[in-house]
Write a sequence for this structure.
């Protein structure tokens, strides 16, 4: 639902201006999302009474039905029909129903002991001691909305920041730049004299159609008669894009949202709350001063808390218009250099913060404040089971089962009286993460805290996971390294593996046939003289002779011919596993190396620590660090070997 295109242009000389105030460089900056471009356009999309809308859509109630979302005996969201009765989030359920007897008060979903998933329980409000709130239904809807917003934008021009569960910032600059060049081909011409500081020609339009947008007025009403400049045209295109996105959300998912469109994040957020619900506000650059003049600065982000209180107590006002005459030097003197300059710019609508596309979750938390307190370990463990199930259900949504993303750490916080204790542990990598693993880790952390003593009664417990990283897909599990014969070939064909081409250079083929890692490990002798020794043609380090050599395929020790080998081509010298190709053997030996490294980190003895070898052409760390000691062949026998070293025989 785009707005009509521009009206026919009027003669440029009618305005008395021949050129735009913006340059070709400003236009180029728009394409790169530069926060310094005066043509920049940022939108803030805010869902209207989001939790209440989620419940209205889930329950299928009429849009004019008063509804509030209940948590225990309080309200956490109130829809606009209910607000008309004077109901707010400060009301109790009892007071709200006195104001509006027809009010629907829907309790949020909760977890309870034994449940594998959150659910809506009719009696949840009376079970505060045994139930835990779940906001997962709202998170799931939020993800659907975010996905739809991204689908509405060009795939290569998506700069989207999820600010919270119900609000999103969009930097539309690059998309608007692309549309400007399509609608006004003259902008594609190079600047005169190839000078990017040359001013752009004026837009060939005299009026812009803002449709139903709430357009912030200019301070000078007569200035509305002036022809628009490129910043006005850019922000109009931004309003068209946002109007279409809001219509898509409404049509596809049923949610209404409000939006603010302006030149930066701060102004766009103020704009989205200016006219609610289901409207969008456009703040043109020329209207910023008028828009902010009657506003309290405590409504601006970062000025609603302690800093805002400090500014109020320092200057004895919370009105922006009263602060505007204060010189920047005085603000720096009273608040410090950085804060003073920031405040001076902020009350004038200046904000260079970037829209960050950080839509992925960084951490997950599940917590409970106990009333009454928890008094023993058994009770606490029951809650840890609920926390683990809660977090794991959200991890599944993040793709942990497909190894798309997974956390690296788990944290437990315990509060008793005024004391908070915390314990952290790493989450084992290299295996599938499940609910049981989280629960066992959480119990272990709780046991560590209990060992310190004086932990009961407990007023609050919280379990969290963090350190998320993208998973590696396509890796084989341990079992895949040990497949034999037909199974191995079948697995290989499923992976689409391609053997070494006969047209490859000989050097390339030797590298594949000769996996360097095997020479780090000695060959395990097989006294029976069978398959274990056959077809091993890779470089190995024989620890018995401390001599690097190449083992050719040969008859077994008994002198009889080796058994025919049809299913196996390569044999692991460490575990006698039989692999069907050099590549499979390389993968298998890589697994051994990874296992050794993991065991070494855990303090277990590794294979290499028992069978020390020195790779060809490589010094050991100990040898490098003691290079100042001169060791000759004649004195080598008297030299003391460090742990992990072995002697080499030459000649």
């Amino acid at each position: 639902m785009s707005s009509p295109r521009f009206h026919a242009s009027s003669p440029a000389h009618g305005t008395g201006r021949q050129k735009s105030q913006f340059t070709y460089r400003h236009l180029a900056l728009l394409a790169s999302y530069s926060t310094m471009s005066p043509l920049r356009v940022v939108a803030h999309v805010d869902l209207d009474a989001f939790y209440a809308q989620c419940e209205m859509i889930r329950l299928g109630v009429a849009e004019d039905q008063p509804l509030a979302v209940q948590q225990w005996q309080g309200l956490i969201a109130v829809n606009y029909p209910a607000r008309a009765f004077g109901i707010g989030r400060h009301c109790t359920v009892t007071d709200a129903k006195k104001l509006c007897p027809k009010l629907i008060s829907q309790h949020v979903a909760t977890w309870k002991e034994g449940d594998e998933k959150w659910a809506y329980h009719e009696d949840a409000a009376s079970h505060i001691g045994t139930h835990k709130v779940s906001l997962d239904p709202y998170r799931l809807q939020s993800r659907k909305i975010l996905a739809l917003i991204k689908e509405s934008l060009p795939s290569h021009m998506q700069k989207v920041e999820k600010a919270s569960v119900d609000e999103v910032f969009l930097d539309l600059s690059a998309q608007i730049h692309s549309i400007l060049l399509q609608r006004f081909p003259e902008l594609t011409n190079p600047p005169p004299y190839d000078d990017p500081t040359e001013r752009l020609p004026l837009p060939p339009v005299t009026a812009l159609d803002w449709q139903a947008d709430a357009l912030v007025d200019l301070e000078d009403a007569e200035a509305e008669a002036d022809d628009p400049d490129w910043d006005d045209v850019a922000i109009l295109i931004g309003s068209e894009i946002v109007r279409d996105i809001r219509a898509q959300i409404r049509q596809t998912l049923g949610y209404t949202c409000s939006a603010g469109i302006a030149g930066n994040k701060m102004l766009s957020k103020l704009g989205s709350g200016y006219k609610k619900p289901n409207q969008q506000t456009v703040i043109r650059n020329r209207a910023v001063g008028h828009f902010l003049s009657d506003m309290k600065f405590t409504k601006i982000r970062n000025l609603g808390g302690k800093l805002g209180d400090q500014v109020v107590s320092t200057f004895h006002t919370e009105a922006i218009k009263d602060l505007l005459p204060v010189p920047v030097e005085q603000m720096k003197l009273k608040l410090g250099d950085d804060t003073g300059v920031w405040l001076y710019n902020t009350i004038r609508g200046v904000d260079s913060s970037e829209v960050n596309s950080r839509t992925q979750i960084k951490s997950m938390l599940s917590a409970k404040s106990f009333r009454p307190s928890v008094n023993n370990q058994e009770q606490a463990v029951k809650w840890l089971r609920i926390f683990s199930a809660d977090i794991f259900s959200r991890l599944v949504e993040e793709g942990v089962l497909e190894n798309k993303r997974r956390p690296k750490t788990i944290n437990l916080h315990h509060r008793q009286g005024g004391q908070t204790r915390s314990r952290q542990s790493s989450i084992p990598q290299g295996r599938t993460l499940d609910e049981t693993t989280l629960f066992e880790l959480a119990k272990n952390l709780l046991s560590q805290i209990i060992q310190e003593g004086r932990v009961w009664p407990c007023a609050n417990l919280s379990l969290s996971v963090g350190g998320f990283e993208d998973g590696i897909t396509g890796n084989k599990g341990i079992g895949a390294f040990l497949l034999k014969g037909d199974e191995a070939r079948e697995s290989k064909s499923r992976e689409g593996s391609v053997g070494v081409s006969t047209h490859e250079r000989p050097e390339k083929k030797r590298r594949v046939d000769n996996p360097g890692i095997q020479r780090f490990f000695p060959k395990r002798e097989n006294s029976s003289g069978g398959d274990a020794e056959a077809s091993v043609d890779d470089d190995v380090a024989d620890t018995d002779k401390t001599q690097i050599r190449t083992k050719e395929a040969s008859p077994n020790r008994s002198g009889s011919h080796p058994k025919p080998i049809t299913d196996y081509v390569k044999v692991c010298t460490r575990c006698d596993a039989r692999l069907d190709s050099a590549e499979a053997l390389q993968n298998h030996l890589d697994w051994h190396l990874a296992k050794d490294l993991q065991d070494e980190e855990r303090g277990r003895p590794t294979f290499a620590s028992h069978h020390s070898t020195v790779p060809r052409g490589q010094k050991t760390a100990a040898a490098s660090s003691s290079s100042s000691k001169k060791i000759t062949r004649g004195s080598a026998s008297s030299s003391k070997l460090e742990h992990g070293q072995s002697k080499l025989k030459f000649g």
Summary: Confidence is low (pLDDT under 50) at residues 1-15, 494-569, 606-639. The longest strand covers residues 363-374.
